[in-house]
Amino acid sequence: MECTFSQERNTYIRDVTIGDQIVKKSERFRYLGSIIQNDGEIDNDVISRIQAGWVKWRNASGVLCDRKISSKIKGKFYKTVVRPAMIYGAECWPAKKKHTNKINVAEMRMLRWMCGYTRKDRMRNEYIRKKVGVASIEDKLRESRLRWFGHLNRMPIEAPVRKIELLDFAYVQRGRGRPKKTWQETIRSDLSYLNLDKNLVTDRA
Hints:
The structure is a single chain. The chain is mainly alpha-helical. It has eight helices and four strands, in the order E-E-E-E-H-H-H-H-H-H-H-H. It is globular and about 60 Å long.
């Protein structure tokens, strides 16, 4: 797979061969449960994670849809079994609003079914989340990213994944058109939203 993250770099990679056999080029592949695209986007990975969440949901529907079980217990079970499958690897996503909305829509369908409501009941999302004790998916994604950001910055400089100096990140000149959103920009936005300083990563607590 040839990664074309920049429109300015017109590189050409010759065919890769093993013996006499040419290895077919691919636009995406799965690695450690995540889907990597050659354009650096995460659309396919988000769709894959939502599908994985639904698989877990169906496997656990006997518990999650049982009217004899309280909503709080269902919520705890959901957070333990279903949600981790749906946001696996999300700490590394340069997530856009459309990605967060897709996951939120899927999650709200699950939570409504858990509570026995449909959209026709006109129950607000905030009420549903409060009833089952499940926080907003946007907050959870932000929490995951910042936890991973702190973990990276506490690593020694000689570690395989080198320390990221976010606010010293040097912007490179970009080509025409809307630039791709980077993970560093997502982290910068998270820190600004919560009014946090990056130096807080030294305080693990």
